[in-house]
Each structure stands twice: as structure tokens, then as C-alpha cells.
Design a protein that fits this description.
Elements: H1 3-25, H2 29-34, E1 36-45, E2 58-62, H3 64-76, E3 87-100, E4 106-118, E5 121-136, E6 139-149
Parallel strand pairs: 1-6
Antiparallel strand pairs: 1-2, 3-4, 4-5, 5-6
């Protein structure tokens, strides 16, 4: 692959990842759900070094049904923890194209700093995020997103948002 193509791919992926962060911060969950392929996996492992997500404990290991249920809980007001959902601000940076899958999907890693504000208190979560993105027209859809929280092994306060 040429350097020019790789640079363009990475720039488009970074723009897409920034869009995803903006949708989450602005609670546009319907648009966020539409970014995913139907079989896409959203993973937040407890151990940030984990690679076997199916057989280990995760904060999230969501398929389409679980993503939809998570959004319903966040937006319905029926869950006590989501009754006063946190406001969030994500900053995404340090994008790196790791390669392509056999299907031609992009593999990207980025850094994310997330500030949560709830009950007059700020919490900061930082993570390395790994993406597998499938081209769809001029944009992408998410095949897999793995959020590796820097402090994933620590006891975390109730996370009332999507990391």
C-alpha cells in the first residue's frame, strides 16, 4: 500500500472516530447505533492487556442487541444509575493505522481521554482504543471497538455512559 493511500485512510478513519465521539458526547445514540455493522462487537475488558474477550470478564462485551439495550437503559430513565446520566466530553488523538484485515477493513488504534461530569464531580478515564472499520461508501462502519481503560483493573465507580 502506498504512503499516500495509508495517509488518506488514516485521515478518514480519524474523522470517523471523531464523529463517533461527538455522537456519544451529544447523546445521539440512534446515530451511534447506526455506525455499527450488525455483527459488530463493542468490548471494554476489565484487564487492559486481555486478548481473549469471549472467555474473560469484561465491563462490556456487546453485540447489536446488547448495544441497543444499553442505550435503552441510558435513555429510558428506568435505571437508577442512568436517571441522572453523566455528561461527557471525549478527546480522541494519536491515531495510528495498524494494518488491514484479510477483508480489507482498517485496523486503527487511538488514544481517548474521557471526562465525565455528574453530581458536581469530574472523573477522567483514559484508554487506548482499537478499531476495526469497514468501508461503506465514503465512510466506515464499526466492526469492532475495544476500549482498553488504563485503569481497567481497578475498582471503577458506576459508569453510566458508553466509554
Amino acid at each position: 500500500m502506498s504512503t499516500l493511500v495509508a495517509t488518506r485512510d488514516l485521515a478518514l478513519a480519524a474523522e470517523f472516530i471523531a464523529l463517533e465521539a461527538d455522537l456519544l458526547d451529544n447523546r445521539d445514540y440512534a446515530a451511534w447505533l447506526a455506525l455499527w455493522v450488525p455483527v459488530g462487537k463493542y468490548v471494554v475488558p476489565v484487564n487492559p492487556d486481555e486478548t481473549n474477550f469471549e472467555d474473560t470478564l469484561n465491563y462490556a462485551y456487546d453485540d447489536a442487541a446488547m448495544r441497543s439495550m444499553r442505550v435503552r437503559r441510558l435513555t429510558s430513565g428506568e435505571s437508577m444509575s442512568a436517571a441522572h446520566a453523566a455528561r461527557t466530553l471525549r478527546s480522541v488523538s494519536r491515531f495510528r493505522l495498524l494494518g488491514h484485515t484479510e477483508q480489507g477493513e482498517l485496523q486503527v488504534r487511538s488514544a481517548q481521554q474521557l471526562i465525565e461530569y455528574k453530581f458536581d464531580r469530574h472523573r477522567t478515564y483514559v484508554a487506548n482504543v482499537e478499531w476495526v472499520l469497514r468501508r461503506e461508501g465514503e465512510s466506515f462502519r464499526i466492526v469492532r471497538k475495544v476500549v482498553r481503560l488504563l485503569n481497567g483493573g481497578d475498582a471503577l465507580a458506576g459508569i453510566t455512559f458508553l466509554p
